[in-house]
Amino acid sequence: LVDDGSPDSSGEICDSYAERDSRIRVIHQENAGVSAARNAGLDAASGDYIGFVDADDYVKPDMYEALFKRLQECGADIAQCGYRCVSLDGTVICEIEAEQAVLDRKSAIKELLVGDIHYNDWDKLYRRGLFDSVRFDPRVSYGEDLLLNYQVLKHCERVALLKGSYYFYVQNPLSASYDCRKKYSFPSKYIMEDIQREYPDLADDAHWVHCSWLAAFYEQAHPRLNRQTKADWEECKKLRAWALGELRRELFKCLFNHACPPKAKCKIYLTAVFPRLYPLLLSQLRKVRGVNQT
């Protein structure tokens, strides 16, 4: 358990668990962010397998048993299960899972970009050896798990997908994922450039994913969705401007990218050309969907 400088009683709760179970170790550190906290856990880990659970979330009791069995029976380096997005009161918002499958390295990288390999690190079980030369980049706080999974997959021979949802991802508006006060980097750009060199036949997939990532950042980093001071917003505004400029530079290529799905092209185009109007349209559409669902 990594206590990343929690201002509440989380550290004391962690210690109480360690007192009751000798298998639990607690690491207390000054607040350094998600990547640094996960790296601290990786550095201290001594087992043969690695898994991650975020502080807000919870898992089914047999999640790691099921992932371990799947990993073993397939001779895989990584096993992944499905997950449910839930609200703070436990209401299921959506469920994300893939069909049972076994993928080689290149197929897994393609699926990470556009398919059934999720960006997340918390719905997976990894062989520890994959992290011998790989760590989370503490400079990246938006998409650090996407970058980590890409780097790990490059050392991976086989990935096993497990059907069924075992992880519960709690959508908390106060979580680190929504905090725009942090300085962001854009791992999708690094991944796109690396894939152009290493896997050129996947370059079109990597390109539109990068454009989608820029559009998503521009939307999610809006001040209405984040808590921040005026000074923080000024920094975030610069990053949003960079993302929009990058998106506009890539727009023409994206529109003629045959690998990019029409729905993604529409979102990228509207964000790039009508950056102020599109969030309003999206907000109204969500309201209409909410009314229809109720």
Count the DSSP helices: 10
Q: Shape from CA axes?
A: globular
Q: What's the SSE pattern?
A: EHEHEEHEEEHEHEHHHHH
Percent helix range: 40-55%
Q: Determine Rg (CA atoms, Å).
A: 20 Å
Unreliable runs, pLDDT <50, ≥5 residues? none
* Termini separation: 40 Å
Total strand segments: 9
- How is the biggest beta sheet arranged? 7 strands, mixed
Binned strand content: 15-25%
Main structural class: alpha+beta
Mean pLDDT: 88
Explain how this protein is built.
The chain is of the alpha+beta class and 294 residues long. The protein has ten helices and nine strands. The model has no long low-confidence stretch (mean pLDDT 88).
Write the layout of secondary structure elements.
Layout: E1 2-4, H1 10-20, E2 27-29, H2 34-44, E3 49-50, E4 58-59, H3 63-74, E5 78-86, E6 92-96, E7 101-104, H4 105-114, E8 124-127, H5 144-153, E9 158-170, H6 187-198, H7 203-220, H8 230-255, H9 262-273, H10 277-293
Parallel strand pairs: 1-2, 5-9
Antiparallel strand pairs: 3-8, 4-9, 5-6, 5-8, 7-9
Brief rundown of the structure:
By secondary structure, this protein is of the alpha+beta class.
List keywords for this structure.
294 residues, 10 helices, alpha+beta, globular, seven-stranded mixed sheet
